[in-house]
Amino acid sequence: MPEAPYVPVDRRPIASRKLRIFQRLSTSLARAGVSPNAIAALGMAAGVAAGAALAATPAFPGYARGLFVAAAALVQLRLIANLLDGMVAVESGKASRLGELWNEIPDRVSDAATLAGAGYALGGDATLGWLAASVALFVAYVRATGKASGASNQFCGPMAKQQRMMTITLAALLCAVLPADLQPHLGPGAWGFPALALLLIVVLGAATALRRLGRIAAELEAAP
Predict the structure, then answer these.
(1) Position 146 pLDDT exceeds 50
(2) Average pLDDT of the chain to the nearest whole number
């Protein structure tokens, strides 16, 4: 008797899956035989490139605005790839347990690279960048540990992956479009939008980890 196809459950709730443009795109990619894992790898490359673009802004100040725009676009490309890899896997019937790894590991690399890169950007703070990357990894670790312990996946915020990346995108766009005299330069480190975004990610990321821990603990305690 043939083995039943693997069906992913308890997926991250993403409203964009219902948009017709992404449904058509995922169908086209599935029909073209594009591998979901290749899409996940593209997303990881985009996340790493976003971090590199942000980190390059002090070295190339004359191109900083363009680099900030590129970083914002790459972050969004990463999120689109994260959306499409799962949709294509389901559409093409290629969902697998191995695909779950491809769904998780590239995300962690992307998060760390983008957030650490933001720490080295103009107006950033390296310590905050690495701290934000660590908090993002811990938030994901809490969710994964909860699932391994028998609880459901907890994707709640207030600073889940989508919120982290939107925060960095907005900070990069503000750096790109606002004149220098309208941008913050706070404290001895001359913190700008990137540092403020990272600080927000650290604070709300810690709150997110605690919220997820509370939900997981309550679910496990209520289990028969």
Answers:
(1) yes
(2) 92
